[in-house]
Amino acid sequence: MAEFIASPCAASDAAAMADIYMRAFGPNPIEHAMFPPTSCPAATLREWLIRRFTTALTTQREMHLVKLTDAATGGMVAFARWTVPHTLTPEEKAARAQKQADDDADDSGGFPSGANVEACRAFFGALRAMEDKYVVDDDMYVMHLLATHPDYQRRGLARTLLAKFLACADAEGRRAYIEATPAGHALYASLGWRDVDEIVVDVTKWGGAEPYVNWVMVREPQKKDAV
């Protein structure tokens, strides 16, 4: 049986994280809408992702990034990115607000060259709006991203990473927030998350077969049965 080792991500892992992200989410209709391969080549998207992951790893102190490594190969096979309850300093709030304002004012939106800016703003803007609506920064755990390499999917790795995340939330008696893709929705429901809202982006205008849906889910803390 394969052995997988959990450990914190480092800035040097950003490229491997980008590769897993692209393999895991590449077939997703919203990814095709936001980053059309004809105008946003894979190499361009990869470099943008590396910058985003590096920023999360080096400048966002509330972010926790954890990876699973295949002990046999030494390669990363899955990772998760979540935030713990926190309070930003006034300086941190100001810096992030300024970065968002700069991106909003930029025609590129801060997205990679060749991206569909309208689609990116529709999706990422909806994510921000839902987090503003439901997340209490100083009292909730938030799972922002969970990705498993396709060669290692359906082997319980996502559940392993989620267990670490939820153990922290449950130990502190705190709620947990997640935005579920169609692929992950059933798993999250089985772990106690419940739907509270939906994000719907009409990707048919960009060639998608039907509107794309993500579920906004919140999980109440769960107590283990006394032994």
Tell me what the structure shows.
The chain is α+β, with helices and mostly antiparallel strands and 227 residues long. It contains seven helices and seven strands. Strands 1-2-3-4-5-7-6 form a seven-stranded mixed β-sheet, with helices on both faces. β2 and β3 form a beta hairpin. α1 packs across α3. The longest helix is centred in the first third of the chain and has 18 residues. The mean pLDDT is 93.
Looking at this protein, list some descriptive labels.
7 helices; seven-stranded mixed β-sheet; alpha+beta; 227 residues; 41% helix
Question: Could you outline the blueprint of secondary structure elements for this entry?
Answer:
Elements: E1 4-8, H1 14-25, H2 29-34, H3 42-59, E2 63-70, E3 76-83, H4 90-105, H5 117-134, E4 140-148, H6 157-172, E5 175-180, H7 185-190, E6 194-201, E7 212-219
Parallel strand pairs: 4-5
Antiparallel strand pairs: 1-2, 2-3, 3-4, 5-7, 6-7
Helix pairs in contact: 1-3
Helix content: 40-55%
Global mean pLDDT: 93
Report the major sheet. Answer: 7 strands, mixed
Number of strands: 7
Q: What is the end-to-end distance?
A: 30 Å
Structural class designation: alpha+beta
Q: Give the helix tally.
A: 7
Short description:
The protein is an alpha+beta fold and 227 residues long. The protein is 41% helix and 23% strand. It is globular, with a radius of gyration of 18 Å.
